[in-house]
Amino acid sequence: MDQDLQYVRFKESRFYGYFQKMVEMKNRLEEQGVYFLFVQVPLEKNIKNLSEFEKERLSDWTFDFNNIREEDYKRICQIYSCESEKDDVIDYLKKVYDGAKVFEMNGIKYLADFKSDLVNVINGKRVTYYQPEKYGNHIYMFGQCTARGTGVEDKDTIASFLQNEVNKAFPDCYRVENMAIGCGSDIHDDMAHAEKIDFRQNDIVIFCTNLEIVPVELFEKNKISYFDCSEIFNRPHEKGEWFTDMTCHTNGIGNEAIADFILEKLCLLNCLNKSTEQTNIPQNMAEPDYTKVPEFVDYIKGLGLKKKAGNNGCIVMNGNPFTFGHLHLIEQSAKKVDNLYVFVVEENKSFFPFDERFQLIKEGTKGISNVEVLPSGKFIISALTFPGYFLKDGNKEIDVDVTSDVLIFAKYIAPALGISVRFVGEEPFDYVTRKYNEEMKQVFPQYHISLEIIPRKETKDGMVISASYVRGLLQKREFELIKGIVPLVTYEYLKRNYDR
Questions:
Q1: H/E stretch holding 79
Q2: What's the mean pLDDT when you consider all of the chain?
Q3: 110 in a domain, yes or no?
Q4: Does residue 277 belong to any structural domain of this protein?
Q5: Residues 113 and 255 in one domain
Q6: Per-residue confidence (pLDDT) for residue 309, from 0 to 100
Q7: Radius of gyration (Cα) for the chain, nearest Å?
Q8: Are 167 and 130 in contact (CB under 8 A)?
Q9: For 203-225, how does the pLDDT look when each residue is reduced to its tens digit (9 = 90+)?
Q10: Could you tell me if 353 and 478 lie in one domain?
Q11: CA-CA distance, 217 to 214, in Å (whole number)?
Q12: Within 13 A of 339's CA, how many CA atoms are on the CB side?
């Protein structure tokens, strides 16, 4: 494209204003001692010596994973090196291409949470493998579908490959966070999320996206470290097939190559250091301002109507199903307050549906006069506020971020009901619940809320009563054993529905 024409096109686009804001953000980050670099995703026009197979699929192929045709299957088998049966391949493709739902709130796009065995999004962030528990700084990767990892497993994103390589060269120094969105997002969304992060000196921010519309010399003019990764895919090379229908739709091979390219540039810029001093600053995506969401405002108002005078406490439980352990927690907690609110997790991601869990808890506690059982709604332990709660059986390398749920409760829900104490059961086994309890213990005092841990109920044999244990017995139809660890209302429900 003629240079003058490119400038005209750029200045007439929305990206002209976005680019100026990105320059301003880069300057602010540098003042904080934060590194910023821009990585242009691979562009077809900038890649030399494309193979005939690459040219063929770039010219006339758009891959629709929801409608895989015979010709799609033939191409995909070459790209993904598939050796399984056709049905297995198609099932796999549908899994790795899923989990890319995006929603918009207040003009900003967010990646919706998602769970599967191959693709996971928690609190708006694609899961990154190999993240260290101890680290000194963060590397934040923003961008579109390339950076998010379209069509690949969690372990095969650019962020996961980069984390793995950084761990080798700089152990316990950096934690890579995949902040990319995709599906129509652009740098406007990336900057909105970046503005909400409390960066630390020596953190690294990478925009790995497409700004082809911006004349390259403007990056240099504004002192932005700019790198076009297209060059690493010039043939001849031995990488094999590295993209699907577009050069920005990189597969695992392409993502690993881009991750190596980024690490090389970070080393070239001397950005990386071996500091392992840990940071305790919560690092989240930009959270929606719930006070501007009508549904949330109505929810808080509704809770306010239920507020009772006196010393109020609460419990949040799933009750999957309701056991003597849950009843013990409620009975012991109710003795310590004037009014006890029991929130039942409403999200229908459990073995037993919400309506039935709710009814069992309500029936099982009707003899305790100061207890009121309430549905949790969408803002207490839900797919919106705490999706990691529903990943208890997931990969241990997944880091669960509980901050959003805890803050919403402390800032809005507790004041609405006058709650001054939240009761939880002691948690010796479940990593997710234990981490949730630890976060509440740190955050609640700032909002004048206490957290009280109640020892777990045990059987006569010293076994801790848990809902997961009951579900295991239910699979074996061990109703006599179940009878000894659940209230009568639960036992009758299980016998009625599962003794077949």
A1: helix 70-80
A2: 86
A3: yes
A4: no
A5: yes
A6: 93
A7: 26
A8: yes
A9: 999 999 999 999 999 999 999 99
A10: yes
A11: 9
A12: 16
How much is the average pLDDT of 302-324? 92
Q: Which three-class secondary structure state does DSSP give residue 463?
A: coil
CA–CA separation, 54 vs 164, rounded Å? 29
Q: What is the pLDDT of residue 365?
A: 95
- Give tens-digit pLDDT for 416-466: 999 999 999 887 556 667 777 888 888 888 889 999 999 888 777 767 788
State phi, psi for 8 to the nearest 5 degrees: -65, -45
Instruction: Supply the range of the domain harboring residue 314.
Output: 290-498
Cα separations in angstroms, 25 against 124, 256, 333, 353: 22, 28, 49, 46
Listed residue (90, 93, 82) closest to 118, CA to CA: 93
| pLDDT digit string, tens, across residues 70-101 | 888 888 888 887 766 777 888 888 888 888 88
Bond from prior residue into 321 cis (ω within 30 degrees of 0):
yes
Tell me which residue of 129, 105, 109 sits closest to 119, measured CA to CA: 129
Q: From residue 247, how far is each of 7, 30, 115, 150, 250 by CA, in Å?
A: 24, 31, 27, 12, 6
Pair (435, 381) in one structural domain: yes
The tally of domains found in the chain comes to 2
- Picking from 268, 301, 321, the residue at the C-terminal end of a domain is 268
- Looking at residue 250, the DSSP 8-state letter turns out to be B
What is the rounded distance in angstroms from the CA atom of residue 309 to the CA atom of residue 332?
A: 20
Helix, strand, or coil here: 429?
coil
CB 26 within 8 A of CB 220: no
Residues 454 and 423 sit within 8 Å (Cβ to Cβ): yes
pLDDT of residue 379: 76
Per DSSP, the residues of 343-356 read EEP--S-SSS-HHH
Task: Give the up-direction half-sphere exposure of residue 120: CA atoms within 13 A in the CB hemisphere.
Answer: 25
473 in Cβ contact with 481 (< 8 Å): yes
Distance set, CA 34 to CA 26, 170, 471, 484, 494 (Å): 9, 18, 49, 59, 57
Beta strand segments in 1-107, E: 35-40, 102-105
